[in-house]
Amino acid sequence: MIDTANAITGTGVVAGLGYAPALWVKPAPVVPQSCEAHIAEPERELEVARWKAAVTLVSERLSARAANASGAAAEVLEATAALASDRGLQRVVGKLIAAGSSAESATVAAIAQFIEKFEKLGGLMAERVTDLGDIRNRVISELLGLPEPGVPTPETPIILLADDLAPADTATLDPSLILGIATRLGGPTSHTAIIARQLGIPCIVAAAKITDIHDGDHLLLDGGVGTLTLGSDPVDAEARVVADAARRLAVQAWTGPGRTHDGVAVELLANVQDGAGARTAAGFPAQGVGLFRTELCFLSAQTEPSVDEQAAIYGEVLAAFPGQKVVFRTLDAGSDKPVPFVLHPDEENPALGVRGIRLGQGDPGLLERQLDAIALAAEQQGVRNAKVMAPMVATIDEARDFAAACRARALSPGIMVEVPSVALLAEAFLAEVDFMSIGTNDLTQYAMAADRMAPSLAALTDPWQPAVLHLIRSAASAGVSSQKPVGVCGEAAADPFLACVLIGLGLTSLSMAPNALAAVGLQLGSVSLEQCQHAAAAVLRCTTAREARSTAHELLS
Amino acid sequence: MTKQTVVVGSSVGLHARPAAMIAQAAGAYEEEILLILDGEEVDATSSLMIMTLGADCGASVTVESENADAVAEIAGLIARDLDA
């Protein structure tokens, strides 16, 4: 059970529990007023030299730490070192000092210029703001003769708190002393998240209210759910941490195949995008590929790959899972996945525009050639009745035409359930095709009328939303009555508790990112099919996403 | 003066890693190398300046320098997916 009484919530990015006193990262240096003085002209050359010495030292120290680190940590440190010695930064600082600024003031002003530009650009560029602020603080501390700012070296285990960790901070963290990390800012792709994942430190980002926590407060951090709890009973908290560590070990040791505790088989499949991804997935306990996203093979191409070129790419994925299920999804270009050669004129609302199977309206040959390529790859690999599904189907006519095109090539046709119309009329759609697969991310976005890319709408784009669960139920029931397989290949399948609910609803397969398979398989193996069905029925009676989630956790734990 | 306009191939645009790789390559030449997007010119040896262009994947960036080899090399880098 999750105790939410005293919980501060954020976005969990690395699952796991940690319990320890809080410790804040040391604050940035303050530039004293005396540094605002005008530097006289004869002194300016010396001032530039003083700045260069400081920045060189900062850059060298970062490089030295990069040499002692490995993997992503080393890369991040090296990148920060390179930014510190950037020529563009040198030029701006040089100009400011030439006009009379002190080295300290010039550093602050120059970095501020770049930060302002990056914030205006937004997106990925805005993520560099933390790096620039870190470089500024290090250079200023060096100029003022202060110790390096950043992460303190604790002597006993702590939970580290920060506004946002700079790359240089995260690179040398010791997982035996840092039992958890929580930041006020940042996102799932920030440096903090990347490094915490690499080090296996439970981590939460975007936890706005951590400012209420003081150094020394005992905290229970749950990186899976995304909560920080103050005032937990220490004995209880320690017991939970131990149980969680045991669970994580059990996940690592889980090798499949997927089945419930009472032995009912559940197909656990991998989502892949190319041959390399399929070969990686084959190293995980995946029983096949439930979603082969073919568009990623096209994204970097300037012109449409030929049938032979496509067949070679598809063959690689089939070869990675010989004799096992591989489900192709035809090109889902458009919306957030612009493929250069099928570019559509600017659409007002691309998520509701010409994407997926709708691309055939303008260029029917594109789908025909892709199906030819899949049939060719299947023939070359000795695969019969290869499974192919179409994305963004909304009408029975689309499903019928697609099925005919597949059957003409001895391919087994299926469709994605993303548009709510398909979930609502699932039985009629299943009469046309051999199988269906629910894309929960898009189904949720369309059912809740909420852009899945908008962070501020995260509460709406939650697959636990009761309306979404009812749509999934509709598709699952149609599968049961038609005796045709209906699976899920969205992020919902990777949530161990939701996965049990989905099986309880009557779905037959779950396809997800390969690294999520073991946690789902372990959870499924701990409950019976009857328990899953019971949880599914209970969840369908819930009226909020929060209630649905906690009901499932309670019934399936 | 040689000029060449290319389409940014990196899926993340001219962001951290692609920008750093271009700046490093540009730093090996004596001659000044400029990147131009929407009338804004920046020094190609500075990854910070390159990033201020905010050049997304698919944007058309012009490379300009006295050194034709430099233009060819930098244009080639911009067109590749450097983050892959």
Q: Let me know the number of strands of chain A.
A: 16
Strand order of the largest sheet of chain B: 1-4-2-3
Low-confidence stretches of chain A: none
Proportion of helical residues of chain B = 25-40%
CATH superfamily of the largest domain in chain A: Phosphoenolpyruvate-binding domains
The number of helical elements of chain A comes to 22
CATH homologous superfamily annotation of chain B: HPr-like
Task: Please state the overall shape of chain B, judged from the principal axes of the Cα atoms.
Answer: globular
Q: How many strand segments of chain B?
A: 4
β-sheet strand percentage of chain A: 5-15%
Total number of helices of chain B:
3
* Uncertain segments of chain B: none
Q: What would you note in describing this structure?
A:
- The complex is a heterodimer of chains A (557) and B (84).
- Chain A has 22 helices and 16 strands.
- Chain A is α/β, with parallel strands linked by helices.
- Chain A folds into three domains: 7-26 and 153-250, Glucose Oxidase, domain 1 (3-Layer(bba) Sandwich); 33-144, PtsI, HPr-binding domain (Enzyme I, Chain A, domain 2), CATH 1.10.274; 254-556, TIM Barrel, CATH 3.20.20.
- In chain A, the strands form two sheets. Chain A has an eight-stranded mixed beta sheet with strand order 1-8-7-3-4-5-6-2, covered by helices on one side.
- In chain A, helix 7 (167-170) links the parallel strand 4 (158-162) and strand 5 (178-183).
- In chain A, helix 10 packs parallel to helix 12 (307-320), helix 12 crosses helix 13 (364-380) and helix 19 (496-504) crosses helix 21.
- The radius of gyration of chain A is 27 Å and the shape is globular.
- The model of chain A has no long low-confidence stretch (mean pLDDT 89).
- Chain B has 84 residues and is of the alpha+beta class.
- Chain B has a single domain, classed as HPr-like (Histidine-containing Protein, Chain: A, 2-Layer Sandwich).
- Chain B has helices spanning 16-26, 47-52, 68-79; strands at residues 2-7, 33-37, 40-43, 60-65.
- In chain B, strands 1-4-2-3 form a four-stranded antiparallel beta sheet.
- The longest helix of chain B has 12 residues, at 68-79.
- Chain B: Pfam families: PTS-HPr.
- Chain B: Keywords: Cytoplasm, Phosphotransferase system.
- Chain B: It is found in: Cytoplasm.
- Chain B: Residues 1-84 form the HPr domain.
- Chain B: One of its GO terms (biological process) is phosphoenolpyruvate-dependent sugar phosphotransferase system.
- Chain A: It catalyses: L-histidyl-[protein] + phosphoenolpyruvate = N(pros)-phospho-L-histidyl-[protein] + pyruvate.
